[in-house]
Amino acid sequence: MAFEWAFVGIAIIAEVIAALALRFSLGFSKPWPALLALGAFASAFYAVSLALVSLPVSVVYPVWAGGGTAGVAFFGVVALHEKYNIWKGLGVLMVVAGIVVLNVASTGHSV
């Protein structure tokens, strides 16, 4: 089961790379960032498909989407110098908290 979670992690990393590459593709007018974005998105989908062989989609998809969202927000602020405010930070924190709750709920443990 841990091996499948590694695929989810790979998918999150690929998703973040793809989103950042889209930013640098300038509306697909720059071919190399555009190709990187397409390749990274394809890699993300493939990694998620491998994770879904044995993990529930009701957990994998939100973890993937939320992890990608948090990662892109982080790199947007840190690497691209986008504006940060308390609301953006709170939103990312809520996404991460939601992922934790989903994982706890999927294992059947109580908090």
Description:
The chain has 111 residues and is an all-alpha fold. It has one domain (2-107). It contains 4 helices and no strands. Helix 1 packs antiparallel against helix 2 (31-51), helix 1 (2-25) crosses helix 3 (57-78) and helix 3 packs antiparallel against helix 4. The mean pLDDT is 91.
Total discrete domains: 1
State the helicity in percent bands: over 70%
Shape: flat
Largest sheet: none
Beta-strand share of residues = under 5%
The run of helices and strands is: HHHH
Number of strands: 0
Strand-helix topology:
Blueprint: H1 2-25, H2 31-51, H3 57-78, H4 86-107
Helix pairs in contact: 1-2, 1-3, 3-4
Descriptive tags:
111 residues, mainly alpha
Sum this structure up briefly:
With 111 residues, this protein is mainly α.
